[in-house]
TrEMBL record, chain A:
Top-rank taxon, per record: Bacteria
Pfam families for the chain: MaoC_dehydratas
Record's signal peptide: none
UniProt cross-references to CDD domains, sorted A to Z: SAV4209_like (cd03453)
Family in the record: Belongs to the enoyl-CoA hydratase/isomerase family.
GO CC terms: fatty acid synthase complex
Domain MaoC-like: 18-118
GO MF term set: fatty acid synthase activity
Name this polypeptide is given: Dehydratase
UniProtKB/TrEMBL annotation, chain B:
Family note: Belongs to the UPF0336 family.
Gene3D superfamilies documented for this protein: Hotdog Thioesterase
Organism: Cryptosporangium phraense
Molecular function terms from GO: (3R)-hydroxyacyl-[acyl-carrier-protein] dehydratase activity
InterPro entries to which the protein is assigned, alphabetical: FAS1-like_DH_region (IPR039569), HadA-like (IPR016709), HotDog_dom_sf (IPR029069), UPF0336/Enoyl-CoA_hydratase (IPR050965)
Biological process annotations from GO: fatty acid biosynthetic process
Domain FAS1-like dehydratase, residue spans: 6-135
Superkingdom of source: Bacteria
Source organism phylogeny: Bacteria, Bacillati, Actinomycetota, Actinomycetes, Cryptosporangiales
Residues of the signal peptide: none
CDD domains: R_hydratase_like
Protein name in UniProt: UPF0336 protein FL583_02705
């Protein structure tokens, strides 16, 4: 594995470049097809509302995947992500309009570990909601 | 039985899932991550991988099939209409790559029942057909109590 970030250049508190991801219904349909998760609450507004949701919501795994791009794009080699976990705290509600939803993700190095690895904590928000909790990763640096 | 008695229960290993280059491409495009390591074997080889690798969350495709055996286990009495995904984690020995033939083995690590909601913690060990460990996937699935407002 060949991360492009060197362990020696990173300190606790080093920030990863933040990213904002627009999310529209078409993204959810595409993700449903690629992942095989066709749960109707991710594409059918009538059903989503009937089970008490405000509207169609993004797959938690889609949100987790989008957030991982902050890791993979920073570290260079996606194979350097050796541990990645999240808690799904709030759903990302995706209305059927031109704007859709927006996911803002930032990350910060929280610890330097042995074997040239670092711990990173991610923050993911949509609107006023923190949508991922305990979003943590371990990256193998060069 | 009560759901808590299922702690330690294991489910039969799945048939091998064969990781294809085009499936990785499809998944990478769906999450908008066009890293060359996912798309171009030559670029992946430059990073030291034998073939294109998969994004970190790709294994949800085949681990979900394996954990489904537990979620749909009638003894657990999960109400699938009220099931939500609580947590997910992947711990890697090495990246998943095209050409891998991967087998999943799911075990129930913990079950908690609180106010009628069931919290099911599962670990899925993913190995190659030959038994080489590749990753472990941890999932917390919650079946919300029927009387709870969504």
């Amino acid at each position: 594995m060949t991360a492009t970030v060197s362990y020696d250049d990173v300190e606790v508190g080093t920030e990863l470049p933040s990213k904002t991801f627009p999310i529209q219904r078409s993204n959810l349909v595409q993700y449903a097809g690629a992942s095989g998760d066709f749960n109707v609450i991710h594409w059918n507004e009538r059903v989503a509302k009937s089970v008490g949701l405000p509207n169609v919501i993004a797959h938690g795994m889609f949100t987790m995947a989008e957030a991982s791009r902050v890791l993979t794009e920073w570290v260079g080699d996606p194979g350097a992500v050796v541990d990645y976990g999240v808690r799904f705290t709030k759903p990302v509600v995706v209305p059927d309009d031109d704007a859709g939803a927006s996911l803002e993700v930032s990350g910060k190095v929280t610890e330097k570990l042995d074997a040239r690895r670092v711990a990173v904590e991610l923050t993911a928000r949509s609107g006023d909601d923190k949508v991922l909790g305990r979003a943590k990763a371990v990256l193998q640096l060069a | 039985m009560s759901a808590a008695d299922a702690v330690g229960r294991t489910y039969p290993k799945t048939a091998p899932y064969e990781v294809g280059r085009e499936k990785i491409r499809e998944f990478a495009e769906a999450i908008g991550d066009l890293n060359p390591a996912y798309l171009d074997p030559a670029a992946a080889q430059k990073l030291g991988h034998p073939d294109v690798i998969a994004p970190p969350t790709f294994p949800i495709i085949f681990t979900m099939r394996s954990t489904g055996a537990a979620v749909f286990d009638p003894d657990l009495e999960m109400d699938y209409a009220r099931v939500v995904h609580g947590e997910q984690r992947f711990v890697y020995e090495r990246p998943v790559r095209a050409g891998d033939r991967l087998v999943c083995a799911t075990e129930i690590e913990d079950v908690k029942v609180r106010a009628g909601s069931i919290f099911l913690s599962m670990r899925t060990d993913v190995t190659t057909e030959d038994g080489e460990p590749v990753l472990a996937a941890y999932a917390l699935i919650v079946s919300r109590a029927a009387d709870e407002e969504s």
